[in-house]
Amino acid sequence: MSGGVMPPAPKPVPAGFEPAFFPKRMGGAAAGAAGEPRTRIVVVGHVDHGKSTLIGRLLADTDSLPEGKLEAVEKACREEGMPFEHAFLLDALLEEQAQNITIDTTRIEFRHGGRAFQIIDAPGHREFIKNMVTGAAAADEAILMIDAKEGLKEQTRRHGLLLSLLGVAKVIVAVNKMDLVDWKEGRFRELEKEIREYLGGLKISPREVIPISAREGSQVKNPDAKRLGWFRGPTLLQALLAGAPGGGRAGDVAGPLRFVVQDVYRFDDRRVIAGRIESGTLKVGDSVVFFPDRKTTRIKTIEDWGNPDPVRELGPGRAVAVTLEEQIFVERGHVGAHEDLPPVESREVRARIFWLDAEALRLQAPVQLRLATQNVEARLVAIDRVVDAEKLEQKSGAREEVGRFEVAEVRIRCRRPLVYDAHDRVEPLGRFALQQGPRLGGGGIVLEAEYPARLAKAVTGEHLTWTEGRVSQEARAAHFGHEGAVIWLTGLSGSGKSTLAVALESLLFRRGIASMILDGDNLRHGLCADLGFSLEDRAENIRRAGEMAKLMAESGLVVISSLISPLRKERQAVRSACHAAGVNYSEVFVNAPLGECEKRDPRGLYRKARAGEIKGFTGIDSPYEEPERPDLVLRTDRENVESSVGQLLRHVLGLVRLKDEDRESAEGPGGQI
Amino acid sequence: MSYLQTLEDQSIYIFREAFSNFKNMAMPWSMGKDSNTLIWLAKKAFAGKIPFPLVHIDTTYEFPEMLAFREWARKHYDIDLIVIVNEEARKRGVGYETHDPVTVTHELKSAALQQALAKYKWDALVTGIRRDEDSTRAKERYFSPRTADNEWEYRDQPPEFWGQFTTAVKPGEHVRVQPLLDWTELDVWEYIRREGIPVPKMYFAENGRRYRSLGCWPITKSVESQVNTIEGIIEELKSTKTAERAGRAQDHHERNAMQKLRAKGFL
Fold this sequence. Notes:
heterodimer; A: alpha/beta; six-stranded mixed beta sheet; six-stranded antiparallel beta barrel; 27% helix; 26% strand; B: alpha/beta; two-stranded antiparallel ribbon; 37% helix; 11% strand
């Protein structure tokens, strides 16, 4: 052994040697079995605003360095002929010392005041934002560093924006390098005001804004009465101690059950469904619906290897393995929920996304969307707004792509239904990653979700099953050369719905697009002949029309529905049903003021309503609820018919026309039958 | 929920994600405390059956007590175990008697693993590394891609968040799956105590000395200790600041030794 003395070879073990030590299983009774929660803190901010120096200072001041570490770094500095800095304590890699920047997320533990903390150091360089995202996504709390002399810089703002996207709501702002601005209160207050305003725009209210000097050790562990005497707030460490101990952002025990399936194992005679409870509580005996197939069964057992005591229920965050009463079809990607609090099931997602990849995310380009254990092919169908980190305002001009490090509000369409929740309702089911190559390229949070009022009975009923056709929607679309859709025209009587519907149908048909009008009055002659005009009957009329339209669109037609459909709730139900079935749905508000419609009165109905001959007439003695967020608005009182029809046609063509690449990738009708 | 429980659940989630996403995974197994904790977690993740092989890289400098433990565990846990020796390097005379520890570790561990990767074509390897072990490991990911040359591109690592990991590999590449990344040495011992996980006897004091970390016998030193219970180990850990791997010679041979070893594929 070069440079050392070879020790003598160990003796062979005696016969009958027992090599294993068996500790007594303590279970929850073990002292310390709880483990000690570590509050995970991400340190972010612009490059050179002092993040590494602060971390080195925290480690040194809390006496958390391993024995000999401080001396070793001091020695290395002497050898390299550099003055010692606290930042070097962290930069253990040689090349980091050479470049004087932190290249990746590091995690360092320290203890203070009886609590354990784990620091995630996130690099400030723009190119390393992916590392910052990796670190911050796991953090309980953030320290945002600002250089007192330089003030807010690009990365200060961008990191703030990303913290809001990643769900880190607890933020402490440290205004560092106060020594460089002569410890002046005026400069601190100025920066405090600026950062509070900026973070306020992101709905983040910082817990504290503290003036410090990491290099001098001021206001980090100890207050600096001499130079920062004007500051009445806590030191940085006092502020950290005042926060709640971390230990993961656990889901809501009382929230809706979301049992995310990772896999199904058949290693022995059991069929084990393995996954994680992201929200709510799962009990043995529970009736659970598995989305998106909506098959229902009861939980027979919870399997817990190594535990002699049977487990009856588990809460959020828990890894779980169950067996089921009935052997229904379940696979990776499915989400178990209780029937009364279902997730959303839709091909459409409205989201705020961030993008990290060098290659931009382009409109209509295929991208993998990964949400919990689901992985579906998707594409951006609209970029509503690109957020400028500097001003938090919309960047000007229509956009064809979301570039590197940009944040945008977008609409995404998936190839098959996605099971999800709104981010503010069930966080783990309301966030997703996007991937174009082998690496994650970005992520996003679901801004809103259309929850079904109730689950369709036909699927959950005990003796009914859903018959799946063998021709896929993709195959139908490839066959027709366009996708099916429901174009839902809503508006007052006399607003122009029928006129537009007739014109649109004819224009689409001439372009080879199979289309069909579904007219409210016509339906009442057949399918809905048993219905009157009570509120209940009118609601049922809309429901039937919606179901009809959905089925026709599933068959590949572009259905133009022309119904007053006055209530938001009812229109919403149709939208949800369409999205759950993976059908394009577009709400078009045919908007003409009541006065104008009454003046037109093409069928003399308003006159009869005013005269009391018709009761419950929309706009007169029955309400019309305008759409809150229609996909298209046509002001038929201001524009002529040609203009309205033109807009409508462009809108519909954009919705249903296949892109060339889609046509190539979708197998022909022969391929999937 | 207790913090140890959070760690256990996260590790099980990682095990299952790896098994679902990779076709041909394996788990190197050194028989140390971390390795035995991994076996325990894998048993839980897969409801009692570990559905992939374990791999022991036998340097031929193993303590006899550890080889005895290996055979005991193989039966006890019903493990599919593959044992690898870099016979070619041993024939060339590579050994602690003649070479420095960095070279020997590279040849008998990293190169041996490299040969096995080429032979068995594993696309994922589960490792027991933890961020608290040393500062280079602090930068790891849960799913950490390795190039076809088994190298770690620590300058340009993929992002990882919200339980979404890097699961795509090119032919010849593999991903290191690291379920214990967030654990500390103390967490591991407290979990062993909570669960009653069997561990090698060498961790407990005999004649006033015990091992904190177990490697090749020529370069693994015991430390002075009277501790012969798990509780004792935990107490000792809480009061000491000596780095865990201080008893391992190859880490200290030259500056940045660990960085060099890790970039070359050392676990």
